[in-house]
Amino acid sequence: MTTSPFKGRTGLKRVINATGYSLAGFAAAFRGEAAFRQLLLLNVVLIPVAFFFDVTRGERALMIAVCLLALIVELFNSAIEAVVDRISLERHPLSKNAKDMGSAAQFVALTLIGAVWAVILL
């Protein structure tokens, strides 16, 4: 099996490097993606609000999990958009499809927040 030359670290050094890459990813998303900042704000509001409802711990965990899931989906969506733009800024149907599918995934994640919160609270 051939491995990438960029995969040279193992053990604790790999974990430290991965943490740095993750923090850099968060910073890039925060600086460059308005949708990420909006979802982060939504999470800052909804997650504490979840603790004010009289629901079971499992229901509260689910309410929080779907909020975090939307943040994860947005990070993937932003990564897809960055890769597509890196390859070419030229308009192409496949590039449009990739970006539209990422957007659709985010739409599903946001719909999931609404549906889960509604089912639990109503």
UniProtKB/TrEMBL annotation:
Q: Name one GO molecular function term.
A: kinase activity
Q: Catalytic activity, per the record? A: a 1,2-diacyl-sn-glycerol + ATP = a 1,2-diacyl-sn-glycero-3-phosphate + ADP + H(+)
- Keywords on record: ATP-binding, Cell inner membrane, Cell membrane, Kinase, Lipid biosynthesis, Lipid metabolism, Magnesium, Membrane, Metal-binding, Nucleotide-binding, Phospholipid biosynthesis, Phospholipid metabolism, Transferase, Transmembrane, Transmembrane helix
What membrane topology was assigned to this protein in its record? Multi-pass membrane protein
Q: Which residues cross the membrane?
A: 36-55, 62-84, 104-121
The cellular location(s) given in this protein's UniProt record come to: Cell inner membrane
What residue stretch is flagged as signal peptide? Answer: none
E.C. number: 2.7.1.107
Task: Please give the superkingdom of this protein's source.
Answer: Bacteria
What CDD domains does this protein map onto? DAGK_IM
Query: Which EC class, in a word?
Result: transferase
The family database entries (InterPro entries) matched by this protein are listed as: DAGK (IPR000829), DAGK_prok (IPR033718), DAGK_sf (IPR036945)
* Cofactors (names): Mg(2+)
Task: Keyword check for Magnesium, yes or no.
Answer: yes
Q: Which Pfam families does this chain map to?
A: DAGK_prokar (PF01219)
Question: What does the sequence similarity comment in the record state about its family?
Answer: Belongs to the bacterial diacylglycerol kinase family.
Biological role: Catalyzes the ATP-dependent phosphorylation of sn-l,2-diacylglycerol (DAG) to phosphatidic acid. Involved in the recycling of diacylglycerol produced as a by-product during membrane-derived oligosaccharide (MDO) biosynthesis.
PANTHER family in the record, alphabetically?
A: DIACYLGLYCEROL KINASE
Record protein name field? Diacylglycerol kinase
Native species of this protein? Pseudomonas schmalbachii
